[in-house]
Specification:
The protein is of the alpha/beta class. The protein contains 15 helices and 14 strands. Strand 4 and strand 5 form a beta hairpin. The structure holds adenosine monophosphate (AMP).
Length: about 400
């Protein structure tokens, strides 16, 4: 069953056409800089040559039409008509308290996504634009929303409540939500497939380390805590986001630097984290290269990042009263042996030992055990695939909806 997975940003539409039955990519790509003088359009079919071009694309609806035109063009032969697509799966970042699972999109769901605009002002509005564009261009095809927050619905109140007046939770829903849920879900399920232990008895720590980074404690298959919170700004230090701060620092910065709330927001989201610490780059590859040339601030940024990982891993071993496996995923987690080794160094007393040779020989795209045989906690690199989770969920929900008469 072909599912079109869509992930919309404020000026971009990423897509992945997936065969959900075979779990394979058919074609992926993106339209970037929507609304700019020229937009960039990229397509990467699994079979056939890649294409990159510039065009004028002024809206998300036009971007989606551009994608459909490419997929349907007789010269590309990817699909013969839009009806070949049996479901559209939308990544929606914030589902608030309402959505525990993926859902078929109707007016009520769209209204709930709108209600969560304040909780995710950078993400939910473009996610809704993507939904409206797909409804416009693919009106007869079931649309499914898959939420980044959904997997973390199992986090109990003692972990999701903040120590602020309870009325703020009741009135404004200020609580921990957690993000990267589809990724934490996917890599933990990949681990369960590998092991003969029953899921209900298994405790896993999933480290999603990309430009955004979060760590989740997963017990019996359910998320019971995660490092990101009310928004994706909190938790460990990230590419450009600060992660956790003493809240008093915010008032202090505003006073001392004489800046307003919106500048503070930009500072914490876009100019902090690895970029802010190093004063050089947010990209881990650049930082590693520069640190190896002796740059002290780049080295410090790496040190903070690895220390944060160690802190969360140690904490989550504590809250779960042990751990069976630690999983590394996303750009840094999958590709940097140095960060994995440094983050989990000197944890032998907690039962964590990395095998240097296994760690150095991880092949891209492959699940690889990197712990030593003597390590009581296993450590794996597990490539993530959020789009596949979205495609499978969308296929399941579309099939159950009765809106797919061709099935
Ligand atoms: P993501 O957000 O998952 O795409 O991850 C992006 C991050 O992964 C960036 O900081 C990249 O520098 C980092 N990354 C990708 N490949 C490597 C690598 N070989 N070594 C270190 N970091 C990497």
């Amino acid at each position: 069953m072909l599912v079109l997975v869509i992930n919309c940003g404020s000026s971009s539409v990423k897509y992945n056409l997936i065969d959900s039955a075979n779990e394979t990519d058919v074609c992926k790509g993106m339209v970037e800089r929507i609304g700019a003088v020229t937009s960039i359009v990229k397509h990467e079919p699994t079979e056939g040559s890649r294409r990159k071009e510039t065009k004028v694309i002024s809206s998300h609806t036009e971007a989606l039409q551009e994608i459909l035109d490419y997929l349907m063009s007789p010269s590309n032969k990817i699909i013969s008509s839009a009806a070949d697509i049996k479901a559209v799966g939308h990544r929606v970042v914030h589902g608030g308290e309402k959505f525990k699972d993926a859902v078929l999109i109707d007016d009520e769901v769209k209204e709930a996504i709108k209600q969560a605009f304040d909780l995710a002002p950078l993400h939910n509005p473009p996610n809704l634009k993507g939904i409206e564009a797909a409804e416009d261009r693919l009106p007869d095809i079931p649309q499914v929303a898959v939420f980044d927050t959904a997997f973390h619905h199992s986090i109990p109140p003692h972990a999701y409540l903040y120590g602020i007046p309870n009325r703020l939770y009741r009135r404004h829903k200020i609580r921990k939500y957690g993000f990267h849920g589809t990724s934490h879900y996917f890599v933990s399920r990949q681990y369960y497939k590998l092991t003969d232990k029953s899921k209900t008895e298994t405790r896993v720590i999933s480290c999603h380390l990309g430009n955004g980074a979060s760590i989740a404690a997963i017990k019996g298959g359910d998320s019971i805590d995660t490092s990101m919170g009310f928004t994706p700004l909190s938790g460990m230090v990230m590419g450009t986001r600060s992660g956790d701060l003493d809240p008093s620092i915010l008032f202090y910065i505003m006073e001392k630097e004489e800046i307003q709330l919106n500048s503070l927001h930009a500072m914490l989201n876009r100019h902090s984290g690895l970029l802010g610490l190093s004063g050089y780059a947010s990209d881990m590859r650049d930082l590693i290269a520069e640190a190896s040339n002796g740059d002290r601030r780049c080295q410090q940024a790496i040190d903070v990042f690895c220390y944060d990982i160690k802190k969360y891993v140690g904490t989550y071993i504590g809250v779960m009263n042990g751990c069976d496996a630690i999983l590394f995923t996303a750009g840094i987690g999958e590709n940097s042996s140095l960060i994995r080794k440094k983050a989990l160094a000197d944890m032998e007393n907690l039962g964590i030992e990395i095998d240097e040779i296994r760690n150095e020989n991880v092949q891209p795209g492959e699940i690889t055990k990197i712990s030593a045989d003597s390590s009581t906690i296993e450590v794996y690199v597990v490539p993530t695939n959020e789009e596949l989770v979205i495609a499978i969920d969308a296929a399941k929900i579309a099939s159950a909806s009765g809106q797919t008469p061709w099935l």
